[in-house]
Amino acid sequence: MDENLRHFLEQRQSTMNPELKEGIQHLHSTILSRMKHSICQVSKQRLSECGQNQQVLTTYELPDHSILNVGIEKFECCEMLYDPSSFPSLRHRDLLSISELAYDYIMKNSETYRKDLYNDMILSGGSFMFEGGTERMEYDMKQFALSGYRVKVVKKSDTIPRVYSSWMGASMLAQWSEDHEDKWISKMEYEEKGFNFHKY
């Protein structure tokens, strides 16, 4: 995502402020990462559906005190997670968006659980820290959901910083698993019996 942000900024600044283009090319990855977390947002719907609504400029001051005016780039950086097919460089890779991955997971479960899964989606981890991520995920999932299914997406509580919550959850599961080897599924079992095989 950092390098995508650099690419979009280069494109914009080369037409609006040519003297900044070389500076952007040499921005350290740490600066790009800070900029990404400071100004980037998720569009409430696909950028291709938004027209000019996302063109409001945000200013960002670089360490050398030069100023960048950032417009739609702050949305384009995150859009690769939600609509990878809109990026020419990614089209040939046949990637699924985050919402498509969630939908595929839900549909692999039996109908008994689908309603609850649609209605209880919790976002955690660094990629969901951007403003607008919850609303976009809910918007996308509503496009997929079958009639009669309620979609509810919530952010993880800040009791545990969301940026770490995925790691902490995995750590807790690993600790629990140590005492429940009978619940483990081997790679061979999974490959043989598939997604719906479980021991719970």
Automatic annotation (TrEMBL):
Pfam families: Actin. PROSITE patterns: ACTINS_2 (PS00432). Gene3D superfamilies: 3.30.420.40, Actin, Chain A, domain 4. It comes from the Eukaryota. This is Uncharacterized protein.
